[in-house]
Design brief:
Chain A: Its EC number is 4.3.3.6, 3.5.1.2. The complex is a heterodimer of chains A (198) and B (291). Chain A is of the alpha/beta class. Chain A is 26% helix and 32% strand. In chain A, the strands form three sheets. A seven-stranded mixed sheet of chain A has the order 2-1-3-4-12-11-10. The mean pLDDT of chain B is 94. Classes of the chains: A alpha/beta (198), B alpha/beta (291). At the A-B interface, helix 1 and helix 2 of A face helix 1, helix 2 and helix 12 of B.
């Protein structure tokens, strides 16, 4: 199994974190939830930032003293995967908001880029290294601008919706709410390679 | 509503899980709620405690007031329409509300029929006291369920009762033989397919929040431990002494509902809680509206 021997911490302060846990378990990975500082004492090989409300997660991460230690781990190379709100947490800049959370991913994202819930949609599209992926966009952001060294993995209607920059993977949509484990399998490959390199 | 739209609407509720949805009556309150960590706000003219105190007929809020709140925050904005009042729901859809609460807090517009929510693109959340009500609302197109509790009282007893009842009935369906499900569907007055789903999955097919009477971080933690996937707080925040602080404490309590040490710290110095009314002291049981 793809995930055998790999432990992933899932940020579980708010949002659709159990969906990610289910995906990772299906792929054979060990999973645990990060809800407070003590949880970071456990060693882990990868980090997931789930979908949810980025303002809530940002607020809770700083209030629960999770933001700085997690940011240090990301900077020092821990593989991280952010979906929707998770992508906003990683972004260096949010074009329609002054907030910056981790700010480790050199992209500019637009929050609620497709408008309110009536603008939410589902589609299927190709993603580099993964293949065709069912994509649910829920009040989703997209990437307006990606900095040098960022690999663009997917575009929908001309907008960038998936990127990789070194150890950071981010998508606008929610692979965790579908049955398709492709994107999670790709993330586990990223983790596996980073473990083999160290 | 096509199946794809319904899925997207259920998925938005999934994104709200582990969060607190707060009642707000002004853009200023909406900003305070967002700043405190609300995962969505419910825009309404009067919070349930005031509706209860004022009496009379209560209706959908002024769309202009709701728009003001939509402009003030980036998180989803919900609003209430009366049970059965599909014209109010059409208006809320027209202003692109993120979620409609077909709510017993307002005076019912129809004492027989709920809104046919399958005819809308916009998602609906509905209250329920037991599994039958929950599944009936889902068959009408609701993509999220919450306990009814007893709004505007600050008394948690009914929300607890409704959540326990639902859990017991779910456990009962899970334990049944397959051939007993037909009779169960008949008793619950719900479609067989939904009964079968609960039997196989041990849960509702949509997200289930607690609502009605949550006033403290401990109340929120209690409901989460009883199986709620998130919490609505109505009057509990802006009827209390220090709304911003209480709101923030409830948000953190929902995330760390299993850690009594943290809950103890969160419960310190919150100022005065909303006054609250006991079940025996109230005239109108809102939870009895719309079954």
């Amino acid at each position: 199994m793809k995930g055998a021997g790999i432990t992933v911490g899932v940020l579980a302060v708010q949002g659709a974190f159990t969906e990610h846990e289910r995906m990772l378990k299906r792929l054979g990975a060990e999973v645990f939830e990060i809800r407070q500082k003590q949880d970071l004492q456990r060693p882990f090989d990868g980090l997931i930032l789930p979908g949810g409300e980025s303002t809530v997660m940002g607020k809770l991460m700083s209030g629960l003293e999770l933001q700085e230690p997690l940011k240090e781990k990301i900077i020092s190379g821990l593989p991280v995967f952010g979906t929707c709100a998770g992508m906003i947490l990683l972004a260096e800049k949010i074009s329609n908001d002054e907030a910056v959370y981790f700010g480790t991913l050199p992209v500019t994202v637009r929050r609620n880029a497709y408008g309110r819930q009536l603008g939410s949609f589902h589609t299927e599209c190709r993603m580099a290294h993964v293949g065709r992926v069912p994509m649910s966009f829920i009040r989703a952001p997209y990437i307006e601008d990606a900095g040098p060294g960022t690999e663009i993995l997917a575009r929908v209607e001309g907008h960038i919706v998936g990127v990789r920059y070194q150890n950071q993977l981010a998508v606008s949509f929610h692979p965790e709410v579908t049955d398709d484990t492709g994107v999670h399998a790709y993330f586990l490959d990223m983790i596996r390679k980073s473990l083999n390199n160290t | 509503m096509d199946q794809e739209r319904y899925k997207l609407n259920k998925q938005l509720a999934q994104m709200l899980k582990g969060g607190v949805i707060m009642d707000v009556t002004t853009p200023e309150q909406a900003r305070i709620a967002q700043e405190a960590g609300a995962c969505a706000v419910m825009a309404l003219e009067r919070i349930p405690a005031d509706i209860r105190a004022a009496g009379g007929v209560s209706r959908m809020s002024d769309p202009g007031m709701i728009r003001g709140i939509q402009e003030a925050v980036t998180i989803p904005v919900m609003a209430k329409c009366r049970i059965g009042h599909f014209a109010e729901a059409q208006i809320l859809e027209a202003i692109e509300i993120d979620y409609i609460d077909e709510s017993e807090v307002l005076s019912p517009a129809d004492d027989v029929y709920h809104i046919d929510k399958t005819r809308f693109k916009v998602p609906f959340v509905c209250g329920a006291k037991d599994l039958g009500e929950a599944l009936r609302r889902i068959s009408e197109g609701a993509s999220m369920i919450r306990t009814k509790g007893e709004p505007g009282t600050g008394d948690i007893v009914q929300a607890v009762r409704h959540m326990r009842k639902m859990n017991q009935e779910i456990a009962r369906l899970v334990s049944m033989r397959g051939d007993e499900l037909f009779q169960a569907a008949k008793e619950l007055q719900v479609p067989y397919e939904l009964v079968q789903y609960v039997h196989e999955n041990g849960s509702l097919p949509v997200v289930n929040f607690a609502a009605g009477g949550v006033a403290t971080p401990a109340d929120a933690a209690l409901m989460m431990q009883l199986g709620a996937e998130g919490v609505f707080v109505g009057s509990g925040i802006f009827k209390s002494g220090d709304p911003a602080r209480r709101a923030e404490a409830i948000v953190k309590a929902v995330t760390n509902y299993q850690d009594p040490h943290m809950l103890a710290r969160l419960s310190e110095n919150l100022g005065e809680a909303m006054v609250g009314i006991n079940e025996q002291e109230i005239q109108v049981l809102m939870a009895e509206r719309g079954k």
